[in-house]
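Q: Sequence in, structure out?
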Amino acid sequence: MVLTISRAKEVDKQTNLELYRLVENLSITAGLPMPKIYIIDDSAPNAFATGRDPKHAVICVTKGLLDKLDKQELEGVLAHEFSHIGNYDIRLQTIIVILVGLVALLSDWFIYLRFFGDDDNNSNWIFVLVGIVLALLSPLIASLIQLAISRKREYLADADSALLTRNPDGLARALEDISKDKEPLEVANKATAHLYIANPLKDHEGSKRGKLSGLFDTHPPVEDRVKALRDMAL
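A: Exactly. Output:
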């Protein structure tokens, strides 16, 4: 579904040998199966990985990423996406969605006990109050937890990328180039933005916002990610 929404097209060894070789070498280094490779025909530089496990993984890059990054920067980005695959991050996000759904069901259960239970039991009012609170707050709390985990997994994928390529500066420079590019990724939307290596919605102000606003970000500030990568090189 994500690939269809993004209008991505599969490429192979014959259609893009250089990209195929980079992905193949990283696949061997990481000890992971060779993923399918897709390209989005968009000049905004970005990339994402998807798939429920390493055997069914896909790495998708934009044409802009291939055109605007040098080889070391591109390798850093691809290694970052391999890290998401190896860490089963897509599966983790799926589990989180299920747990969020369970919280919503729990709030419904509390309300059900009040309206279909014994009306003479005053303690049922406690259930309905708890149910109302959960119904109001659980979507917000669940979203905050999901976004916090997403940001942590980005840091982890950055670190794993640096270990895989032994060149943290490559990914650091790539993140700087991607963040400085002002062109929005037209196929991206709020539902898919968290998948990309950097937020593709260019109206997003990122690190310029306050700490409280940062709680609703899908990605950590690029400056913090770059600093962490450069510290690894010291």
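The chain has two domains: 2-88+145-233, 91-141.
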